[in-house]
Design brief:
By secondary structure, this protein is α/β, with parallel strands linked by helices. It has one domain (3-131): Rossmann fold, CATH 3.40.50. The chain has six helices and five strands; from the N terminus they run E-H-H-E-H-H-E-H-H-E-E. It has helices at residues 8-15, 21-32, 42-55, 58-69, 80-90, 97-109, and strands at residues 3-6, 37-41, 73-76, 112-115, 128-131. Helix 3 (42-55) packs antiparallel against helix 4 and helix 5 packs across helix 6. The longest helix is centred in the middle third of the chain and has 14 residues, at 42-55. The radius of gyration is 14 Å and the shape is globular.
Length: 132
């Protein structure tokens, strides 16, 4: 079963009904049905929480977090191996450290990152990217 790693960009696109929301919705439906596997770093989930808390409130961000837990997304902690790989991706610059965690998780899982964030262009060839 193929695995895809969601970047914060992808989940926010879904929640905010931005471009790419339909594609993310399809991935979520496939994950719940067992046709696809989705994963996300806890660091990137934290990015989603911050964005929602800033736009609305911490209480609303907590509600979104509860929704994510029911979406069939494996939320994975950042151990040293993931953190070191994220740091290696960050060392040359031009990409946020949080985005590097999505990339590191994708590399570990031999998966594609689902994103529309153009910062990931610097990692093309090093990881798979499914562009929204």
């Amino acid at each position: 079963m193929p695995t895809k790693v969601l970047d914060a960009y992808a989940l926010l696109a879904f929640f905010l009904d931005e471009p790419g929301a339909d594609k993310v919705k399809g991935l979520l439906i496939d994950a719940v049905a067992g046709r696809d596997k989705l994963a996300m770093s806890v660091v990137n989930l934290g990015e989603v929480w911050v964005a929602i808390a800033r736009a609305k409130s911490a209480a609303v961000a907590d509600q979104y977090f509860q929704r994510v837990r029911a979406m069939g997304i494996d939320i994975l902690d950042a151990d040293w191996e993931i953190t070191r790989q994220a740091a290696l991706f960050k060392t040359p610059g031009n990409i946020s450290f949080a985005d590097c965690f999505a990339a590191a998780l994708a590399k570990r899982m031999d998966a594609e990152v689902v994103t529309g964030d153009k910062e990931f262009k610097v990692l093309e060839g090093q990881i798979g990217i499914a562009w929204l």
